[in-house]
Amino acid sequence: MRDFLRCVEDDLVVVKEELSPEYEVPAVLQELDRPVVFEGVEGYDIPLVGNLCCSREYLVRALGAESWDDVLRKLAEAMDSPKEPRKERSPSFLEAERGPEFLKEFPMCRFYRTDGGPYLTASLVVAVEPEEGIPNASVHRMMYLGDGKFAVRVVPRHLYRYYEKADHDLPVAVCLGVDPRTMFACCARVPYEVSELDVAAAFWEDLRVYEVDYGIPVPAESEIVMVGRLTPERAPEGPFVDVTRTLDERRREPVFEVEKVYTREDPYHPIILPGGEEHRIMMGGPAEATVLAHVSRVSEVVKVRLTPGGGRWLHAVVSIRKRTEGEAVNAGLAALAAHPSLKHVVVVDEDVDPDDPEQVEYALATRFQADRDLHVVRGLGSTLDPSAEEGIMAKAVFDATAPVEKRERFEVVEVPVSDRVRRILDELP
Length: 429
Hints:
The chain is α+β, with helices and mostly antiparallel strands. It has two domains: 2-272, Roll (Pnp Oxidase, Chain A); 296-410, UbiD C-terminal domain-like (3-Layer(aba) Sandwich), CATH 3.40.1670.10. Helix content is 26%, strand content 28%. It has twelve helices and 23 strands. Strands 5, 6, 7, 8, 9, 10, 11, 14 and 17 form a nine-stranded antiparallel beta sheet that branches. The protein has a five-stranded mixed beta sheet with strand order 19-20-21-23-22. The chain has a four-stranded mixed beta sheet with strand order 1-2-3-18, with no helix packed on it. 46% of the residues are buried. Residues 103-276 form the 3-octaprenyl-4-hydroxybenzoate carboxy-lyase-like Rift-related domain. Belongs to the UbiD family.
C-alpha cells in the first residue's frame, strides 16, 4: 500500500487535526475526491487512509497503464491466465505480534448513523480450501462485536463453501493495508478452482505472498494481518450502506474470532467509504473486466462501462462493432450472464462513447424502438436492487444500435471546419 501512496502523492491530502472515526473521518472522505491520510484520529495513534482509489486514474497511474480500458484488458487477461505469486521471506507485518487486545488500539469507523456498529471495510479475507488447498482471497465487510470478534458478511460463494466444508470452523487471515492493485484483482469473479491471489499476481507482477499460521498465504505488503477462525457462532450483522447507497438488511452472519495479530510497528489502516466512488470502482471495475471478456466471445467490443448512476453495479453500457443484426442482443445477454447483478444493459455502436451519458441518451433517442429493441428477461435476481421483490426482478437489454444496412441514415452530420477556421479558433483568448 505504501508504494501505491507514493504513486498518488501529488494528489494526497494529509489531515493533521484530530477527527473522530465516528462520522467525522467518513464525512471528509465523502466531501473530497482525493486520497486522504488522517494522522490525527481521536483516541488512537494509528492513522487512517481513505479514498485511495476514488478515481480510476489512480489505478491507471499506479499500474503504468495507458487508460482505464487498458486496466480492464489487463485484468481480463489475468483472469484468463493466472499465475502463482512469488514468495516473500520477511514481510514488514511481522515486525510485531499482538493478541486480540490490540483491537482496542485500532480505529474503526462508524460511517452512517444507521450502521449496526463500527466496521472494517477494506479487509481482504484469505482462506485455504479444506480439501483441495486452493487459496481464496475476497473482500468482506466486518462489523466489530467487541472482545476480538467480528460479524463477517459472507455471501454464498467460494468462502462460504470453504466454511461449510470445514464444518463451520474455518481458519482465515484478515489482511488490512493491502495494496489497492491486489485488492482490485481479488475482487474479480473467478471459478472455484482459481485463486484470486493467482489472478492478482498475473495482474500486478510485484505481488508477493507469505504463509502465516494454518498455511494461509497472504499479501506480503499487508500492514496488519489478523489470524483466527470463522466459527460456528452467528451474530447479527448490519444494517450497512452498500454500493447503491441504500441500506442492506440485517442478517445473522458467521463470527470471526481473532487469535493473534501481526502488524508493522507503524501501521496504516485503510478504509473504504461505503457507497463512495472507491467502493464502486473496486466492485464495479472487476465486473467490467468480466463483462468485457464474456461479451468479446460474441461480438467485437469497443468499451464496457458500469455507469455511475447505476452505482457502477446495476447498469452497463457496452459499445460494439456490429457486423450482423441480432449481434447487439447477443452482446447484451452475454453481459447479463457475465455479471448477475446487472439490471439494464444498453448496447450501442462504436461511434457512441459509453462514458458520455449524452451520447448514450442520443443513441436511445434515435436508434431504439421499444416494441422492437427492448428485450426483457424475467425471474432473475440481485440482492442489491432495493426494488427487487425477494431478490427477484426483471432485467432488460436495450438495443440502441443502428441497422447494419442503413447505417448512413444514422450518422451525425457536422459543419466542416477548415484549417483556417481551426487556426483562428486556436488563437482566440
